[in-house]
Amino acid sequence: MISKQELLTSNITKNLANGMLDKMKLSTVLLKHGGFSGSGIILYGDVASRQAMVLTAAHNVLLAAKGSADFPGYPINWQNSDILKHSQTLLNYFKTNVKIHYRALDDTQAQNEAEKQLQSLKMKGITKNQTFSEPKAKNGVANMVAANLINTGDWTTDLCLLRFSYAENEVPRASLLGPRDRTHLQSLLQNQMNFISELKKYATSTKRVSGLRDYQFFQFGYGKPSTDTGDDYTATLDNLKYRVIEPEGTDHYRAIVCEDGEMVKEYQDVLLFQSDTQNTSLPGDSGGPVFAFQQATTAPEIFLLGVNLGSDFFKPHQAPSDSQSAPTGKYNNAITSAYAAFERLHG
Q1: 102-112 b/e with 16+ CB inside 10 Å = b?
Q2: 3-class SS at 335?
Q3: Which of the residues 137, 185, 262, 276 has an alpha carbon 20 to 30 A from that of 170?
Q4: What was the pLDDT predicted at 124?
Q5: Rounded CA gap, 303 and 338, in Å?
Q6: Quick check: 157 pLDDT over 80?
Q7: Whether the predicted pLDDT of 25 surpasses 90
């Protein structure tokens, strides 16, 4: 039986302008290494250098190091002082070992065929009615060339920028902002920051489209299909999930993870969304994008609100007594605002 959340997601996607859903799906990437999987979002590409910028959650760096002989124990459970001591080593390990999986296009075959066809037509004295084949869709896999925290040495802002090079036959099919020159890119980054700054205005809009909120928020990720999925689950590019989510508020919080009522870790710039045990983020969704957009607009702009942090985060001194034992997603779904990332890239 289809759930209320699945029905709502289906109804909203029907109202999307052409190409919007594909753009959000195709720009969401899968990060993989051994038993680790996480998510991210391609922000933009540079055609000249054939490189692309990805935003993900910084705690993915810690998750990916589990089981490595280079690090004792499980880095995600380390104290902040130990994480800081090993920051650069952890980032280098992530950059060297984790692969970025994405939807790609092979443009070389189409270019070669077009060139052959053009030469053949010229030899026959024909100069019109040429038909060229479309680039071939494929799955791309890339190595990182850089992995950096948004703020050096700051793991409380759960954002990490990755850069990867791609081959001519594995061009990313989509990105949030597209391939842009520096001047145009700065304008687009500013638009993204402006939206986040004015989030309250959009999230509380009383306008309705087909009875639904004017502005909608979608979360994408390569996490486990359900809480019942075993630990041996291996994500692929065919396992992308997406769902509509509702903001619990519009303020940026300082949020904490609790264990036995005590603070374990603290994070900055956190936005909270409504959740329940059947509708929440799961392992593998970390770093996945949360988009915002206006329905039924001819040429709507897609905004990146942030990337997934996890489930059940609380403001300091406000964690419920069962915060550690409650089922995943009972209280909320948390993301880290992307504002700091856009601000850094804007310069």
Answers
A1: bbbbbeeeeee
A2: strand
A3: 185
A4: 53
A5: 10
A6: yes
A7: yes
Q: Residue 191 in 3-state DSSP?
A: helix
Q: What is the pLDDT of residues 74-90, one digit of tens each?
A: 888 888 888 899 999 99
Confidence class of residue 320 from pLDDT cuts 50, 70 and 90?
confident
Q: How far apart are CA 153 and CA 149, in angstroms?
A: 7
SS3 content of the chain, % helix, strand, coil (to 5): 25, 30, 40
Closest CA to 336 of 57, 42, 83: 57
Q: How far apart are CA 90 and CA 10, in angstroms?
A: 40
Task: Give the start-to-end residue ranges of the domains of the chain.
Answer: 4-108+135-346
| Global confidence as pTM | 0.88
Print burial letters for 55-69: b (CB count within 10 Å at least 16), e (below 16). bbbbbbbbbbbeebe
Contacts of 9 (CB under 8 A, 6+ apart): 218, 242, 243, 244
Query: Which whole-number Å values give the CA distances from 113 to 116, 119, 198, in the listed order?
Result: 5, 10, 49
Q: Which pLDDT score is estimated for 122?
A: 52
Residue 151 pLDDT > 70 = yes
Q: Is 204 left (phi over 0), alpha (psi -120 to 50) or beta?
A: alpha
Q: In what order do the strands lie in the sheet with 215-221?
A: 241-245, 215-221, 289-294, 303-311, 333-337, 262-273, 253-259
